[in-house]
Request: fold
Amino acid sequence: MRRKLVFATGNEGKMKEIREILKELDLEICSLKEAGIQMDAEENGTTFEENALIKARAAAAHTDAIVMADDSGLEIDYLGGEPGVYSARYLGEDTSYRIKNQNLIDRLEGVPDEKRTARFVCVIAAVLPDGRTLTSRGTIEGIIGREERGGGGFGYDPIFFLPEYGCSTAELSMEQKNEISHRGKALREMKEKLRRELSL
Reply:
């Protein structure tokens, strides 16, 4: 019987990316919904690592499968690392990203490109069936643009500009994004850790 991996998310776009990157592992990969797990974890950690582990442990309490969860966000150097771990809750959970993005652009009004540096961070935590935990971290560096660009991606993608590509992450193809994204990097690192730890 194939081993099972439950990823603590309900986001279908994310599940597609996870399945694509982890497809070489002999695992049945399912979302919380597919695994029949209902949980609500309070993400009150002060780091991406803490929040990812809180989510992974909460889901692991419901299953003996391998459980993974991620926490990710945007860090803007000029704003002291904001919105950081509060990226999803910045200006309120129900506030649209159009408003969040415009607010960040406004806060950087008049700031030159060399001081608009930022990065997307993604941390993935895994809880193994024996209770051991693993974490991996991926980042992608860029700058905050002066306007929203592109219709792909989600969240802060339209304002996150990649100078070497001459476009925002919302203008990349899905393949390009998986190749260079913070989540893609963290997933590939986690894939190697799982291979080593579980002989997959």
